[in-house]
């Protein structure tokens, strides 16, 4: 049922920006540099989760304990690899991203961005979208205690907007987004643009699933309405 005056809380990678697979390859490069052999498909399944959970995944996959020092080194190498791909122009907004944000702004529907990425990688994505974090609420991993599937990012984004998280819509592309939405008591809306399937997103709590931002814009009246 459409929510009136609902705020939209967007994930970034895979939701507004076509960057999931670039992140996967950047993580693969970082892991290879540390001698950690993890299959690409396994990395993809973990994109968007918190760093601590990612470290636990590495422990299970490699049998090696991942110290905080090593994890931080991996993060730095991942950021460097991802930013190189941005410089090559391979990371771009998803179809309809800019138009969807412009539509919400024109309709006075509040929106914010909440990403499990850190600002060192998110800033390039924001620039590609034309989003100024000085004017639009943007919450990154640097600003909260826990990342997804914990709800901290989306709760902080709702607080920045001054809205009730329970009257908000979390828009994301991964199961981690939908689980975080449930824990925040928000409604989750899934997009297929990050590589997860419709069944996976629905089983994780999505009450609607669309192809990408352009598809969501075409059906925006299904999830939000105005007085």
What do these coordinates show?
By secondary structure, the chain is α/β, with parallel strands linked by helices. About 45% of the residues lie in helices and about 15% in strands. It has helices at about 20-35, 40-45, 50-60, 70-85, 95-105, 120-130, 150-160, 175-185, 200-205, 215-220, and strands at about 5, 5-10, 15-20, 90-95, 110-115, 140, 170, 185-190, 205-210, 225. Strands 6-5-2-7-8-9 form a 6-stranded parallel beta sheet, sandwiched between helices. Helix 1 packs across helix 4. It is globular. The model has no long low-confidence stretch (mean pLDDT about 90).
Q: Give the helix proportion (percent range).
A: 40-55%
Q: What's the helix-strand series?
A: EEEHHHHEHEHEHEHEHEHE
Structural class: alpha/beta
Catalogue the unreliable spans.
none
Neighbour order of strands in the largest sheet: 6-5-2-7-8-9
Strand content: 5-15%
Q: Total domains, how many?
A: 2
CATH class of the largest domain equals Alpha Beta
The oligomeric state is: single chain
* Inertia-based shape: globular
Would you identify the CATH H-level superfamily of the largest domain? HAD superfamily/HAD-like
What number is the mean pLDDT?
Answer: 88
Number of helices: 10
| Straight-line distance between termini | 14 Å
- How many DSSP-defined strands? 10
Largest sheet: 6 strands, parallel
Known CATH architecture of the largest domain: 3-Layer(aba) Sandwich
Instruction: Kindly identify the CATH topology of the largest domain.
Output: Rossmann fold
The value of Rg in angstroms is 17 Å
């Amino acid at each position: 049922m459409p929510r009136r005056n609902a705020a939209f809380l967007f994930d970034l990678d895979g939701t507004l920006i076509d960057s999931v697979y670039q992140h996967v390859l950047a993580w693969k490069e970082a892991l290879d540099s540390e001698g950690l052999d993890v299959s690409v498909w396994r990395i993809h399944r973990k994109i968007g989760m918190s760093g601590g959970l990612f470290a636990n995944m590495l422990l299970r996959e490699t049998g090696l304990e991942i110290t905080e020092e090593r994890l931080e080194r991996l993060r730095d190498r991942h950021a460097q690899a991802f930013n190189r791909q941005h410089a090559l122009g391979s990371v771009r907004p998803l179809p309809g991203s800019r138009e969807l944000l412009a539509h919400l702004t024109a309709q006075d529907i509040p929106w914010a961005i909440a990403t499990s990425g850190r600002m060192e990688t998110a800033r390039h994505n924001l620039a590609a979208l034309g989003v100024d974090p000085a004017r639009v609420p943007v919450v990154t991993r640097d600003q909260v205690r826990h990342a997804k599937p914990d709800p901290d990012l989306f709760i902080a984004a709702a607080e920045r907007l001054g809205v009730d998280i329970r009257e908000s819509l979390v828009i994301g592309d991964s199961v981690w987004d939908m689980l975080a939405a449930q824990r925040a008591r928000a409604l989750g809306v899934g997009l297929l643009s990050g590589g997860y399937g419709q069944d996976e997103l629905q089983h994780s709590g999505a009450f609607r699933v669309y192809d990408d931002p352009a598809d969501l814009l075409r059906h925006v009246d299904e999830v939000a309405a105005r007085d």
